[in-house]
What we know:
Elements (H helix, E strand, L loop, with lengths): L3 E10 L2 E11 L4 E5 L6 H9 L6 E6 L2 E2 L10 E4 L11 H11 L4 H14 L15 H14 L4 E5 L7 H18 L2 E6 L2 H7 L2 E6 L2 E6 L1 H6 L4 H6 L6 E10 L2 E6 L4 E3 L12 E8 L13 E12 L3 E8 L2 E8 L11 E6 L4 E5 L7
Parallel strand pairs: 3-8, 3-9, 6-7, 7-8
Antiparallel strand pairs: 1-2, 1-4, 4-5, 9-10, 11-12, 11-14, 12-13, 14-19, 15-16, 15-18, 16-17
Helix pairs in contact: 2-3, 2-4, 3-4
Bound molecules: adenosine-5'-triphosphate.
Adenosine-5'-triphosphate binds next to strand 2 and helix 1.
Amino acid sequence: xxxxxxxxxxxxxxxxxxxxxxxxxxxxxxxxxxxxxxxxxxxxxxxxxxxxxxxxxxxxxxxxxxxxxxxxxxxxxxxxxxxxxxxxxxxxxxxxxxxxxxxxxxxxxxxxxxxxxxxxxxxxxxxxxxxxxxxxxxxxxxxxxxxxxxxxxxxxxxxxxxxxxxxxxxxxxxxxxxxxxxxxxxxxxxxxxxxxxxxxxxxxxxxxxxxxxxxxxxxxxxxxxxxxxxxxxxxxxxxxxxxxxxxxxxxxxxxxxxxxxxxxxxxxxxxxxxxxxxxxxxxxxxxxxxxxxxxxxxxxxxxxxxxxxxxxxxxxxxxxxxxxxxxxxxxxxxxxxxxxxxxxxxxxxxxxxxxxxxxxxxx
Length: 363
Ligand SMILES: Nc1ncnc2c1ncn2[C@@H]1O[C@H](COP(=O)(O)OP(=O)(O)OP(=O)(O)O)[C@@H](O)[C@H]1O
């Protein structure tokens, strides 16, 4: 059993409260990504699970057992850090075997594990080298290998790819995903990189100021963000937000963009405010706005400012009723309208999000 249950966790450093009454239940075999900007408390949460810091209140249960006060080595976890943390004076083989030798594991079992893991991570050719003679990607593979040889129930990763260049990061990301599929162990992974979160996670916990804002599958986080923070954090370019108000009368609900058109949002499933007008925010992702409106039911005016081509995709930046907006489309459209071009964009109510302007909560 490698379920992890965090119950009412509080962590304070001096007078500063970093995690507040945090609850998180991670099922065996899940790949949970803790996603958030710098300082939101994701490493603190990971370190609390690992037993590397003292918690102020609450419980950490691993496999059903209360491990809140257990030593890191008694928690059945393996951990991989951003900084590799390899021993420079010893070879890759020595690094991989260190923890096992300390635990007095028989030599043939150590050899068997190193053989299995080094094949899995393709580090066999470097076993006799020291870390200084390895590239960043190879070093990080060794660091992952060192966690894997322990054959832990749970693996914790703290930004393991952020010291690597973009190409290598993408390669190792795919390898980590394959690794999870192969060994099926519970993995908890900290990153501020939304692409890593979206591609690796079975569920993402989006954090802000020590609080989990949403815990859901990557699809749900992307398509049904729980609030304005989550909606704005995930996606590139970010979701378009239009300020306005909602009004519902005689079975029809409209969102009126400030100084802009009315949009019929009657098809959007929510408890529409009846009678009064409520300030709200309409969110729509750049790829859900179409320059070729076709028979899409909803329309927005758009004034082009700049166009950007990024190879496979292009983005038009501009304004809708004076508010900033962007549209993303496949480069096969070969569209490069000059600044000032007025367009009509099409979209559908299936792809929009509505938020309460004051609380930021999804409606
Ligand atoms: N040992 C400590 N003593 C005092 N404050 C700390 C300590 N460790 C972390 N903090 C503070 O707690 C907050 C959360 O830190 P944490 O490292 O968990 O953030 P993070 O989301 O992982 O950010 P990053 O991506 O930058 O590592 C920060 O404001 C940080 O300054």
